[in-house]
Amino acid sequence: MAKVLIVEDDLMFALDLQHEVERLGYEVIGMAKSSDEAQVASEENRPDVVLMDISIAGSMDGIETAHMLQIVYRLPVIFLTSASDELSISRAIQERPYAYLVKPFKRQELKASMDAALRDARSDDDPESSNHAMTTAVGSISDGASAALPIHEVLFMPATAEQLAECALVEAKGKQLYELLNLSDKH
Questions:
Q1: How many Å apart are CA 19 and CA 13, to the nearest integer?
Q2: Treating both helix axes as pointing N-terminal to C-terminal, what angle do 86-94 and 62-73 enclose, rounded to 10 degrees?
Q3: Are 65 and 56 in contact (CB under 8 A)?
């Protein structure tokens, strides 16, 4: 049974949400009304998914709290909010939530969002699955593209990139991209 943390500062809504979540077959392992409480509950109970209101009590709003929970605990977050203004949506989307539901929402919308978040979070945590998917995607590229971390460390290369770099992926993996390619600004 998936464990759910509810972060909501409206007690009546939080209790209604807890009832709905439990009716859907999930276990509510904690309820928090602030960022600090959410962090403590996440540390103590390790939820599988967080239902997060954007407007919560305390020094950090729900978007900042979601960012912290995703960084520190790698928790999938679903935003539940009455905030549907462009700025709130834009800020929330930057945190890559697993879903964004505007209150009031239907039970089936909540269930579908939670099911998808739990499924996606499991596949995100499976390095073999994501490495295989990335290798397959990069391997299908026909030109000399390669995938690198922001620090330019090579992760994957299709055969054409191996030819350009004059080395196999096995030799290139983990090296800096500039070490492998002769890059210059000359025209």
A1: 10
A2: 10
A3: yes
DSSP-derived secondary structure for 62-122 = HHHHHHHHHHHH---EEEEES--SHHHHHHHHHT--SEEEESS--HHHHHHHHHHHHHHHH
Q: Summarize pLDDT for 34-93 with one digit per residue, the tens.
A: 999 999 999 999 999 999 999 999 889 999 999 999 999 999 999 998 877 888 888 888
β-strands 49-52, 27-32: how paired?
unpaired
Are 4 and 51 spatial neighbours (Cβ–Cβ below 8 Å)? yes
Fill in the DSSP letter of residue 123: H
Query: Do residues 44 and 53 lie in contact, with contact meaning Cβ atoms separated by under 8 Å?
Result: no
Q: Which has the closest alpha carbon to 46: 4, 98, 97?
A: 4
The total of other beta-carbon atoms located within 10 Å of residue 182's CB is 8
Q: Which has the closest alpha carbon to 39: 5, 15, 88? A: 5
CATH of domain 3-125: 3.40.50.2300
Task: Tell me which residue of 17, 106, 107, 71 sits closest to 32, measured CA to CA.
Answer: 17
Delimit the domains of the chain by residue range.
3-125, 128-180
pLDDT attached to residue 35:
95
Q: What is the mean pLDDT of the chain?
A: 80
User: How many CB atoms lie under 10 A from the CB of residue 48?
Assistant: 19
